[in-house]
Amino acid sequence: MAALTPAPAATARSTADSAPRRSPRTDSERLFNRVTLGTLLALALLWLAPLAWAVATSVRPPGELATDPTAWFSAHSTLANYREVLAAGRIPYWYVNSFVTSALTTLLTVCTASLAAFALSRLRFRHRRPVFLLILAGVMIPPQLLMVPHFLTLQVAGMLNTYWAVVLPQVPNVVAVFVFKQFFDGIPVELTDAARADGASWLRIYGQIVMPLSRPAVSAVTIFVFVWSWNNFLWPLLAVTDPQMMTLPVGLTSVQDAFGLPQAQLMASAVLGALPLLTVFLFFQRRIVEGIVGTGLK
Amino acid sequence: MSATAVPGAGAGAGAGPPAGAGAGVGAGAGAGSRTGAGSAGRGTRTPSARGGSAHTGRWTASGMLLPFGVFYVVFLLGPLVYTAVAGFFNGSLVKGGLGDWVGTANYAQALGSDEFWSSLGHTLWFTVLTTVPLILVALALALMTDRFSRGKWFFRLAFFAPFMLPSSVISLLFMWIYADEIGLAQGVAKALGADAPPSWLGDPDWAMISIAAATVWWTVGFNFVIYLAALQEIPREVHEAAAIDGAGPWQRLRLVVVPMLGRATTLVAVLQLVASLKVFDQIYMMTGGGPDDATRPSLLYVYQTGFTDGRAGYASTVALLLFVIILLISLVWFALIRHTEKEA
């Protein structure tokens, strides 16, 4: 759900943030803080452990894995598993497919949702309220339940096994409309009224005034739609059966099915599958968390 | 910040530097006047644009709503209507089309079949196993993290990073961890003193619990960051006032902080319930619904009847029944959004 407001309302919070929150007053509080920190660090390590375990497994030579499967470290660490997986598999194709389909989904979603939200926020037309409520009600339709009609539609359109099959059903995103409308509602009416009085068309006001002002909303929607689309599994699994056209998450299941692939290579594939979003996350941690929390879609 | 639907959402608003937002509006004003200056030369257009604004307004609105509307109708509303209608026919995925009218036969079959009820039972069992810990663990982690002003980024990284990963990576990883004999989980259980640890994914009694545990690890970060943002919204003065009144850390937590997280908890609970009821990915990959269908959730049942058996009509019936259940829960979410909309 949306919490992005263009209004500069966060002054109180940001000062509270920069100042140290509470300085411990008494010995018992200091002890309490130390115990808390210890627990928290232990839990953080527990949370990082499975990822570290995957990496540790992926660099072990296959022979060693058989003799001592649960050892964390190997004296003969090797990147051979990664080389094998990259050479034999289709992972590079899946990277490209995932990127193209996610980018197309994001672009179409941002354009269509913001345009609709602009009309709902700024234009006065009959049945505006019912139209808005109808769109909002779509939030209650889980797209996963629509797999049969989606499949039939794209089958009839002859689009299965194409990028469009993956992209199109993901485009109508009600939450994106909601986020944009909330943001647009916060932009002062005087701005658009003045442009209107000067004879600018609504389309121009949308493109040249409102959208440039709405960068926070655009970036939030871009982030959550891209991540959600990149990780989407059930629909791409049905839409594409050609291994060359699969997205990364779907492709990785075929790695798992490939009988007899050594564990170390499976883990190398998993690490390669985790790498793109994890890298992006490391660099843009704060914005991504805000984008995903601010839009509240799951 | 009156428009905040989620207490946590404040993170979104608060995150952007306030000065930046102000500057943005200022720049916008500039842009507005520039547009004005630019179109002043074509002032002749203004009267006609204004005169017909009621009429052209409607056409502009329709035009702007059209692109989204087409996608909405073709891929959301239409398919829902199809699902409702197709449930009364015996359509097949192979032949296409609706098939023949069978009345309520599909509904009778679904409601009378063990498979429907057992898969629904598994979905609900998974929902219970995940929703409760996902709320409590997230709350605990956020409360602890909130005590420290420095190092928040590290905990956010540790707890949220798994949420960014695709379900298939999670599945590959946990199938290795849960592997019989050679997996880490059995190794740890043995080290802790279990003589014969269960086959985590192969034992019908343990499979769902194991999948739920992996899911908690995977997705707790989302609830964690929502709670963390909500906690940062609580003004410092509240803590200080409570401390001056002599409340210890535990009392402050129980009597002051937790009650102020009501909205965040509602949001987290509703999102979590809806997400858990739609569980599919990790079960499809880790157990395929087995052993002996012991973990098959409702959505996998829809998938199997529709795409393995090719029974589009029957699958639609099951999908619609599942939709009704999820609908009842998401109505709460809808009410929340509307409430926010009115405030805004």
Report on this model:
Chain A: Residues 1-18 have a biased composition (Low complexity). Chain A: Belongs to the binding-protein-dependent transport system permease family. Chain A: Keywords: Cell membrane, Membrane, Transmembrane, Transmembrane helix, Transport. Chain A: The chain crosses the membrane at residues 31-56, 93-119, 131-151, 163-184, 205-228, 264-284. The complex is a heterodimer of chains A (298) and B (344). Chain A has 298 residues and is mainly α. Chain A has helices spanning 11-18, 27-58, 62-67, 80-88, 91-122, 128-137, 147-156, 163-167, 174-185, 189-197, 202-213, 215-231, 234-239, 248-257, 263-283, 285-295. Chain A has one domain (80-294): MetI-like (MetI-like fold), CATH 1.10.3720. In chain A, helix 9 packs antiparallel against helix 12 and helix 12 (215-231) packs across helix 16. Chain A is globular and about 75 Å long. The chains are: A mainly alpha (298), B mainly alpha (344). At the A-B interface, helix 1, helix 2, helix 5, helix 6 and helix 7 of A face helix 1, helix 2, helix 3, helix 4 and helix 6 of B.
Tally the structural domains of chain A.
1
What's the CATH H-level superfamily name of chain A?
MetI-like
CATH-assigned fold name of chain A: MetI-like fold
Q: Which residue ranges of chain A are poorly predicted, with pLDDT under 50 across at least 5 consecutive positions?
A: 1-20
In short:
With 298 residues, chain A is mainly α.
Write the layout of secondary structure elements.
The complex is a heterodimer of chains A (298) and B (344).
Chain A: H1 11-18, H2 27-58, H3 62-67, H4 80-88, H5 91-122, H6 128-137, H7 147-156, H8 163-167, H9 174-185, H10 189-197, H11 202-213, H12 215-231, H13 234-239, H14 248-257, H15 263-283, H16 285-295
Helix pairs in contact in A: 2-15, 4-15, 5-9, 5-12, 5-14, 9-12, 10-11, 12-16, 14-15
Chain B: H1 10-15, H2 18-40, H3 45-51, H4 53-86, H5 105-112, H6 114-146, H7 152-160, H8 167-177, H9 184-191, H10 204-233, H11 236-244, H12 249-257, H13 262-277, H14 281-286, H15 298-308, H16 312-343
Helix pairs in contact in B: 4-16, 6-10, 6-13, 6-15, 7-10, 11-12, 13-16, 15-16
